[in-house]
Design a protein that fits this description.
Oligomer: single chain
Shape: elongated
CATH architecture of the largest domain: 2-Layer Sandwich
Strand content: 15-25%
Helix content: 40-55%
Structural class: alpha/beta
CATH topology of the largest domain: Heat Shock Protein 90
Radius of gyration: 46 Å
Mean pLDDT: 80
Low-confidence stretches: 1-15, 424-428, 470-479
Number of strands: 17
Number of helices: 17
CATH class of the largest domain: Alpha Beta
Distance between the termini: 93 Å
CATH superfamily of the largest domain: Histidine kinase-like ATPase, C-terminal domain
Length: 604
């Protein structure tokens, strides 16, 4: 530290030592005065009584005087020497204490500035202060304390210094200006010291840059968690609605497809039945979006090339994108494979580009679609929506950027809500479906937008290392089929049971029905020897499908069980646990799908 100011540090041990060193000589002097007084008072009469000859008495008086002088001199010498040694010890202890204090100040992590309380001139600083300001102590000593802060805040910090000088102990957040010009946030506290009639202010400046950054990250993370929890609760609601709606659609779509099998082609009812089936299929597409939003919409999972998905979707975009929008594709080649459902990834591409087109409105603009691969850290992932639980590593990304109107913070907080739109109602799930698909694919999304400048959505999918993209297998052919045997249909929806019974009976099967899981187990126990297969709904009252499946295995594990659910196969199989499942069919399904599934299970 600079030597412009030498602090005097009071030390209780030193003061106690000084008082102790002074006490002993005082006691000695007191004893000496008493003894000397008694000697003076008593020695003359005593000598007069013992010595009667005057010459001899004079000699004794002279000897007595010199003895007194000698004793006094020796005592003074001893006291002076002892006092000098005590003073040297006190000075050394004080010097050691001051050096210790100076070392502590010098090595402190916080910046310390010592200034004159009257003038505000800096008298001393430590190494931390030099690092905080980016200047050596020789430049800092002699400055006015307001010169530590940004120039525009000089008056404010001048008033703050006077408050410190009067009362001390003030704790306040502020800023100092580094030598390179950037502002550093600090926490300022101060104390005052009276030293030799001079009032000194010691200010402690703590750099809170990292603390502020951590606090900002914490607030951002908490906001993301709250937003994700709100979206997750909406997802649970959407998934439940989709499941129940699929149960209703199963009866409508199934009976419509079954009726078409028995109605002659020339019948006027034929066209009506086709319209019913078409409407049911569109409703089923909506429930698929609801399942996607809930994160339970993954179907045909396979390794995929994201660039190929984007390029394959490009030809479908003409009708969905504004004629005034210019599409610019920048798709990387040879991307690592991602694990996903091709139809849902195409939905992500379509929804993001459609949203970008809506942002352009009636104005001309550019939509840039970019794919690539990037390594993401945990900090980068935590800053994204749905990225809190993801692991750092390699991710394939799709970026869709537009030059449209952009969004403010309030709109960004609502943009992923189902059916939310800034244009007009009736646009469907849109970005909410994108969020659900990403949730189901363990992906994340980043939104960057500035009003009047445009918006960029970037979605990230984890790479599947050493896995080549694959193609979707072809569907089974539609062939007429007749069989025999007994099928147990367990479903709490009467419409589903009726439809399944009609289809199965048309193929030659006998059908037994159960309305809940407990009844299904009872029927299976009674007829296990005659049952050929079981069509089991996963969500039923009294006893759930996965519990019934476990009891089926205990009774007879050889009977194949086909699971049916309004949720997806992955969700249903996960709930089934370790129990063997012969096949899965998702509601709503038609007659052909049910027949093909049963054929596959029975090996026909």
């Amino acid at each position: 530290m600079a030597r412009a100011w030498e602090p005097a540090v009071p030390n209780r041990k030193i003061l106690a030592a000084r008082l102790t060193d002074l006490g002993f000589p005082l006691r000695v002097v007191t004893v000496y005065v008493v003894v000397a007084g008694l000697w003076i008072l008593l020695s003359a009469p005593l000598l007069g009584a013992l010595v009667h000859e005057k010459p001899i008495l004079v000699v004794f008086e002279i000897a007595k005087g010199w003895l007194f002088v000698l004793i006094t001199a020796l005592l003074l010498y001893w006291l002076i020497r002892r006092g000098a040694e005590a003073l040297r010890r006190s000075e050394q202890a004080l010097k050691d204490s001051e050096e210790q204090h100076r070392l502590l100040v010098k090595m402190a992590n916080d910046a310390i500035f010592v200034a004159d309380a009257e003038s505000g001139i800096i008298l001393d600083v430590n190494h931390a202060a030099e690092e905080l300001m980016g200047r050596p102590a020789t430049e800092l000593v002699g400055l006015h304390q307001t010169e530590l802060h940004p120039p525009e805040d000089t008056e404010q910090y001048g008033q703050l210094f006077h408050i410190h000088a009067k009362s001390g102990g003030v704790l306040q957040d502020g800023w100092v200006q580094h030598n390179d010009g950037h502002r550093v946030p600090v926490e300022i506290s101060a104390c005052t010291i009276d030293l030799g009639g001079r009032r000194i202010v010691q200010g402690i400046f703590r750099d809170v840059t990292e603390r502020n950054r951590a606090e900002a990250e914490r607030r951002t993370f908490e906001a993301q968690i709250q937003h994700a929890q709100r979206l997750e609760s909406l997802g649970v609601l959407a998934g439940g609605i989709a499941h129940d709606f699929n149960n209703l659609l199963a009866g409508v779509m199934g009976n419509a497809s079954l009726a078409q099998r028995v109605v002659p082609p020339e019948s006027p009812a034929r066209e009506m039945l086709e319209d019913i089936e078409t409407a049911s299929q569109r409703a089923a597409e909506l429930t698929s979006q609801l399942l996607a939003y809930s994160g339970k919409g993954r179907f045909l999972i396979q390794p995929l090339d994201l660039s190929q998905i984007v390029e394959g979707t490009a030809r479908l975009l003409d009708a969905a994108v504004s004629k005034k929008a210019e599409l610019c594709f920048h798709c990387a080649e040879g991307l690592p494979a991602v694990s996903g459902d091709p139809s849902q990834l195409r939905q992500v591409v379509m929804n993001l580009i459609t949203n970008a087109s809506d942002a352009l409105g009636d104005h001309s603009g550019v939509i840039r679609i970019t794919t690539g691969v990037v390594d993401l850290s945990r900090r980068e992932l935590r800053a994204m929506l749905l990225g809190e639980e993801l692991q750092a590593g390699c991710y394939v990304f799709l970026e869709v950027a537009d030059t449209g109107t952009g969004m403010d913070k309030d709109m960004q907080n609502r943009i992923f809500e189902p059916f939310f739109s800034t244009k007009f109602t009736g646009r469907g799930l849109g970005l909410a479906a994108v969020l659900g698909i990403l949730r189901g694919h363990q992906g994340a999304i980043r939104l960057e937008s500035t009003p009047k400048q445009g918006t960029t959505f970037t979605v990230f999918f984890p790479c599947q290392e050493d896995t080549a993209p694959a193609l979707v297998s072809a569907k089974s052919s539609d062939q007429a089929w007749h069989a025999s045997g007994t099928v147990l249909v367990a479903d709490d929806e009467a419409g589903v049971r009726t439809f399944a019974r009609r289809v199965l009976e048309s193929c030659g099967f006998a059908v037994v029905e159960a309305t809940d899981g407990r009844e299904a187990v009872d029927v299976f126990r009674q007829c296990a020897d005659t049952i050929t297969a079981v069509l089991l709904d996963m969500t039923m009252p009294k006893l759930g499908g996965h519990e019934a499946l476990r009891k089926f295995a205990d009774i007879c594990s050889d009977v194949p069980v086909i699971l049916s659910s309004g949720y997806t196969e992955e969700h249903a199989i996960k709930d089934a646990g370790s129990q063997h499942v012969a096949a899965f069919i998702q509601k709503p399904y038609g007659a052909r799908a049910l027949i093909d599934t049963l054929k596959g299970v029975l090996g026909a």
